[in-house]
Amino acid sequence: MAQAAASTCEICTAGPGEHYCQQCDQLFCGGCKSPHLRTKSCKNHTFLIGPNINKEEQLFFAQNTKKTVRRENTRHLMTDLTKSPEKPRSELVKNVESKVTTSKQNINEIEIETQTYREEVKDVIKTITEEGNYWKQLIDKKVEALIKDSKEIIGQRENQHDAKY
What we know:
This is B box-type domain-containing protein. By secondary structure, this protein is an alpha+beta fold. It is built from two helices and six strands.
C-alpha cells in the first residue's frame, strides 16, 4: 500500500506513478501497468491516468448513488469526476437492461424445465403405481390359489379320514 504522498510506481519505485488502479488502490508506471493487467485476477481492473494523481484525496462520482464520495468507499461503482457521467450512466442502463433481459430468459427457461421435470415425476409415479398394482394382483392370485389348494388338500384328507372310519 502506498503512502499518501506517493507519486512513483509502487511496484518498481522507479517510474512515475501515473496510472492509478482503482481496485488495488495502487499507483503504477506504464511498464508495470501492462503486466498487472495480464494477470488473471487483475485483467478487468480500471485505471485513472494522470501525472498529478493524489489517490488519498481524489474525489469520485458514485454512479449508483449519484453522490460524490471519497475513493475509500469501494462499494460504489466509481468514475473520475472529470469524465462525463452521461456516457457511463447510459452504458450502465444498457448493461442493467441486458442483465434484466437475460435474467427473464433464464427464469423462463427454469420455469419450463421445472414444469417438464414435474411432468416426468408424475409419469414415474404413475408407472410405479401401475407396476405395484400389477404385482399386487399377481400376489393376490397366488395367495388365493395357495389357499384353494390348501383347502382342497385339507378336504381330501378329511374325506380320506372319514372314509377310514
